[in-house]
Write the structure tokens for this entry.
Amino acid sequence: MTDAMQAEFDTVAEWTARVAADLGPDYHIPAGCRGSGSPAALDWLIEHMELQPGAAFLDSGAGVGGPAAYAAQAREVVPVLLEPETGACRAAKRLFGYPVVCASGSQAPLADSAFDAAWSLGVLCTTPDQRQLLEELHRTVRRGGYIGLLAFVAHDEIPADQLESNHFPSPDGLADLVRQSSLRIEEWLRTAELPAIPETWNERVDAVTQALTDRYGHTEAWQLAERQSGRIGRLLEDGVLTGELLVLRHA
């Protein structure tokens, strides 16, 4: 993992938990969802994945754990978090207390058909082992269970030196990856079509970001992570990248 990726998914993740803990419980889930899911996106996935109370639920590449906590709050699922970065694992345990397995989603030390449903949000483009990641989701979710994805796809070529350690498929490439992994697309929605994010949510995320900037803005790790995030933001604004929500099942 490059320095920018390490900063974003390890160091800054742990700082985020510290800030959210200081700000209070109302900030935990918005802080834990920074960069990995808006309420509208999570609500859409929760509805179309038909999540049920008590369902064993896997978040692969869970980061700080905000999306899994959101799903547990919305539908009373029982989450397990799978996350390779130790800083993010510690952050998730601190904020939410769910079981955390510190391992890669493309090599998940989890039993076959152990979960009723799973999702992986913003993770696919960060790994070169994309088919293996999807195959592991296929393996660990029982037949008939849903798998949700938030994936970023490229509509034009992105110079290799512009973004570090990202592997954005094309829309057709993403569809091919899904088919090669023995999964079937049930629903597909571009994130630009979602409703607006509630103002209260934005205010809490902004408060977390401001606190992080105030405390850690002078550090190399924060500056690296912010540069990477800014580059992706500009590509999304220009339409070179788009966010895509998919709901999958066993083919």
Remarks:
- The longest helix spans residues 3-23.
- The CA atoms of residues 232 and 238 lie 10 Å apart.
- The beta strands are 56-60, 78-82, 100-101, 115-121, 141-154, 183-190, 241-250.
- The domain at 3-250 is CATH 3.40.50.150 (Rossmann fold).
